[in-house]
Amino acid sequence: MTAHVLIVRFSSIGDIVMTTPVIRAVKRQCNGGDVEVHFLTKRGYLPLLAANPCIDRLHAIERKVGEVLPQLRSIPFDWVVDLHNNPRSFQVRRGLGCPAQVVRKGTARRWLNIHLGLDVLPPGHMVDRFMATVAPLGIQNDGLGLDFFLRPEDEVDPELLPRRHREQGYVAWVIGGQHGGKLYPAKWVAQACRELGQPVVLLGGPEDRVRGAQIAAQGGEGVFDACGATSFNQAAALVRDAVCVVSNDTGLMHVAAAFKKRVVSLWGATVPAFGMSPYLPGEGSLVLEAQCPGRPYSKHGGKLPLRAPYTCWDGLEPAKVVAAVQGG
Q: Is the pTM of this model over 0.85?
């Protein structure tokens, strides 16, 4: 008899991408592969999973679980895999009343590390914690890393890029980030672009247009600013086609790992020890951390040190980033 499994993760981009090893493993291993995999998230994140062949059905909410609970109750779920573990996901578990496996995120330990400086962070990557959640179901990590699938409409018109970028290849530099403490300083990005001396494509959302224009104006003729010019999935297509990806701690960093790109990840207010570093990225990938004392400053990078702006990036000057990119 076909099993039915509901995987729950509401946000955000990087976390949803990091659930993909669980999605794939459940689809291939649960009940001998005779399983329907359902996934519940917020509506705005549906494009991230729309092309994933391991998901049989997507469900989404705008704000409240009640929007989708009647629909979910009509499906005979055997298990809920809760990879969010928050009040909303608890409502899903309670509303369905079927057996559930719930991720242990280590939130309390992370708080103690950030606010008291205690070295009590949970070991391992967040993907490993997600996989541990389904281990009681007999699901094992297949070691294949992250997935990210694109639809035909996600492909980018090659003419979007300058001829030099198309012919020589380019470095994709992800300048965006949801929180200020994750944003590598614009003037340093521009300086690194000048010193690289090779084509660079700047990637970010509409909120990054001002920073992108500033960097492009100061970064030299090899810089092409694509911030706000593409959808997220189109930006992912540009990441896929890059020769190397430089990224803040943000969603496209995880997409780059899914495409097995060589990733140079930059860490300021947050730290990779949270378990959020690129998971099984391409060969030659590097994790570069600032050396400012007191890191990490917050869980998501929203809190900066009390000194001058950008001091959370001390010790990670442009020359180090350039050397890391060119070292590949």
A: yes
